[in-house]
Protein 1
Amino acid sequence: MQEATFYYLAAASVASAFFAVTRRNPVHSMLWVLALFLHVAGIFLILGAEFLAAVQVIVYAGAILIFYLFVLMLLDLPGEEARPRFGVHWPFAVVAGLSLGALAWLAQMEPLVIEKAAVAGGGAAADTPELGSLENLGTQLFGPFALPFEMASLLLLAAIIGAVVLAKKRAPAS
Amino acid sequence: MNGATVADLGLVLPELILTGMALVLILVARRIQSTSVPVVATVLAAAAAVAASWWVLSKEPQSAFGGLITVDGYAQFFKVLVAAALALVALLSVKGLEGSGAPRSEYHVLLLLASVGMMLTVSAVDMVTFYLGLELITLCSYILVGITVDRPSSNEAAIKYFLLASFASALMLFGISITYGLTGTTSFSGVAASIAERGLADDPLQLAALALIAAGLAFKIGAVPFHSWVPDAYQGASTPVAAFLASGSKAAGLAALGRVVVIAFGPDSPALSIILVGLAALSVAVGSVLVLAQTDMKRLLAYSSIAHVGYAVMGLTAGTDAGASATMTYAFFYVFMTLGAFGVVIGLGARGATLDGYQGLASQRPGVAGVMLLFLLALTGIPLTSGFVAKFVVISSAVGAGYVVLAVLAVVCSVVSAFVYMRIAVLMYMREPESPTPARFPVTLSVAIAIAAIVTLVGGVLPRLITDWAVAP
């Protein structure tokens, strides 16, 4: 059952990603991206990462997709649709996609060690008994990962300052 | 692994000082926008950070936050360098931002936050802090490049830089995630131990991860073939921002590369040596040749920075402690000579932006022409300047590691690039002036240039002051 669900979600993810790239109407592309986000959230659920699944739905399917739609509103849609669907560089994109695919294939051939994480050296991420649960994530974030958490908050602060600085109207005199 | 304790906060005191100052400046931003408070505050915070990093290391080198960062001589060396670059750039910005319309306090806040990112990057010994530190630097850099919103070239440069750098970050993150999948750890020493224990050195997936991480870092330091953003970003940015990108960002990127090379992926990895030799050779050759065609001073210094990054990476090719120490020396001296050159460009204003503006400068302002000549000699690598010492240590470490062809290429390329530096000298000293005498430099700018000049001269005459301090991790 779980296997069947996984293969459905995986196939649907790939298919919606494909349609998102090939649709001529940008709004249709966006809807396919939404389908992609939801299916990926499903995969996270199967893996037992409930929190990531929720974040995937709230942040990606909610906030980021709406943000993309706002950007679409600023575009000249009929003009966009009339233009050729792919630029002249699409062979490079195909090569890049294929090499990433090859890398993914290579990765599944390898004996990955995330499950038996207690490898010699034991880095910051080495002792995560139960990946993905909300409680565990919170303990990790405010315990061993306090410093990276604070660094991420500085990153967001810089981004906020940047948004204000770049978007603010200037007094003409200055 | 233990969690973080309050005692760990003392070990990141320099970062805390800079962060605190950034928060204060952003709170009072409106009141101090048109005063010189932001500059003074930034310089004071930088000085306090230098003092703090000395105080922190007066104890034994130790790791903090459960092994996410370390406080050792290597980190301290680069923290002092970053703080010095921050202070000098703040001093350069007084004149450099005049009339640009950039909001002063936000500008300095971003400089401070970028410096926090640099300090955390140079002390990172874990992929998580390493990546977040680099991202903090680049995020602040995008905004700083685009902060002069009234100039279209600034916007264009910021967007180009943003798109390319995000792509590079994604590549690096992908490499980091593969490494984590293979080794089960994110700590540099853990990665090295796992690679050795499980015999992953020749593993194709591990090699792919290594290549992705190296590509991301090469982008951050602007090494060929990931250099295409450098000239555009420097030209579009205001001059002090370009100076900051050329000095602090490069030093932090080189420091991070040094730690990754020496600790995580090990000196024994032949693939890593090939990547580093390739990056160094291409950067030195392409940078030195393309610099010849430039007439815009910011683009010229951008191509010069590409070549200099190549020389700095040469030290790491050896994979030894001596080689890493050579790279540290190179980064240190390069920061001061490039900041000095940028300072003169800023001081001359519109006239300093193009090569022709330097005609006859020596007869109008002999002092300015003199220090500019000093920085040009250092950038070329003439003896008795710090540039010679820097080139000497990296080239001899490359020879020591058996890369004789690379060393010969480096020497040939420094002769080639000498043409462009000496052309500026010829313009200054052997031509009649065509434009009116430039105004006197403001005191802040003169102080910054004087500090850069002193380091460049003293480093050339008494290099041991720095080389003894540059101890590899």
Note: The longest strand of chain B covers residues 62-64.
Protein 2
Amino acid sequence: MAGCVLAYAECREGKIHPSTFEAVRAAGLLAEPLGLSVAAIVIGDGLDDDAGALGGYGAAKAVVVETTGAPPAPSRWARTAADVARAEQAAAVVLPASITGKELGPLLAAELDAGYLPDVTGLSVEDGAVVSKRPVYAGKAFVTVKAVSSPVVVSIRPKAFAAGEPEAGATAEIAKAELAAEEARDAKQTGFESKGGGKIELTEADIIVSGGRGMKGPENYEIIETLASLLDAAVGASRSAVDAGWRPHADQVGQTGKTVSPDLYIACGISGAIQHLAGMGSSKTIVAINKDPEAPIFKVADYGVVGDLFDCVPALTEEVKKVKE
Amino acid sequence: MNIIVCIKRVPDTETRIKVGEDGVAIDVTGVNYVLNPYDEYAVEEAIRIKEKDKSTKITVICYGPGESTKEIRTALAMGCDDGVLIKDEGASARSPDAVSSILSSAIEGREYDLLLFGKQAVDDDAGAVGAMTATRLKLPFVASINALELSEGKAVAKRDVEGGVQTFEAPLPASFSAQKGLNEPRLPALKGIMKAKKKKIEELGPGEAEDKIRVQKMEMPEQRSGGKIVGEGAEAVVELVRLLREEAKVL
């Protein structure tokens, strides 16, 4: 008989990242109908207090694995998590589908010889089995997928599950576990170069301002960045802008880039190729600014402005400034 | 050096997806298939290594239906040496755990220093087969790399993560999955295409593997009602901001 649903605490630069709160809540969605408790696994240095605070999101227990120095290799992390999952008799392990989470999920599933439900946007339990909903073809379709064996590893799409406010005063009981032994096959992390400190991740952003071919060149993204910084937004780009070398690939929204679902997506000079529409079509509100009234982006936009982005975007920035004052 | 690249046949990203009659997969009528775009980066990387070390032999392995010989020949035309098809007409319905078990059985016993994948296939977007196959084969694995360097029995790879760039070092044999940006894949030259046509492709059966997850239903996303034009030109932004605040409540 399984004992818990285990949530993975994602640590970035020595701190538990807020995406962890979503994972703990999502674990709760499975634990309740399964009649199990929620536990968290925290691998890091001196994180006992933060691990305890996961109780506010529903974790009854936090298994802390102390590490010092370089972060453990993904494969070693996966073996450690597999040990904890076995010891805690986890029916499911839930991870945030960040870049590292998307790597750890299948590594862990293979260690546990378990099924893997990647990047899910919905979770439920049917007849004692975990059922997930997730986008495929970058969001052009959705599938409902059932785990037909147990345990199962699940990664959750950022922003798809609400973390909500933590319950005041609730703390998780702290337990300790050891890192799995190092093996020759572990890829060692030998470097980390921090970039754009505090930069908002596209997949985690509430607002995204995106620029496409209509930007005409990399130097013109300044107007996008000005608006984005005013709105605390992330900056995105279309594939044509990335392929032209104007923006890094990390900024690309759409198939062969990132699939995003912010509260507000502002598409500037983006015509709306099918690959782009797939990647941002689940945004709550879409604004399009484009001079071609026939651009496909207007068909999905809640609010369209037909006009030259070099006039409209600075004007929008000024108007936002006015209402923010 | 021996390199194995695992590839997949997928619908072109231009494809308009429709749900098929079975309700669990796409309608394949009129769909144009291509070599998975992320696999192209893996194939290209292998070829670049071969260009530096001519003794390198590159084998592409594809698990898929019989038609996948087209995508294998694309990789051969780009410059890979040998093609292996693990033929299974039902391949597209298999789960990543089953696929990784089928691939690792086909890879075991072969000689290789590098095992490369695309970071995900653009059909099911799972991004799991590389990590799972590497784990089954007990290889070092780094996902989603955008730089790779080899020297004296080891590999150094870089990748973008949230907030920065990580560097990893792994002893060979090792496995990696390729992200866009690793290189710029070449188009096959006519000479390569002609040569690839004549190559014999090794054919294997898939053997037994159990699926640990099962697709129950496929559906289309909710249609967006969109299409409202607020106005023309810079004057329209006043009304736009009002609507975003009062109607959409996102500002």
Note: Chain B has a mean pLDDT of 96.
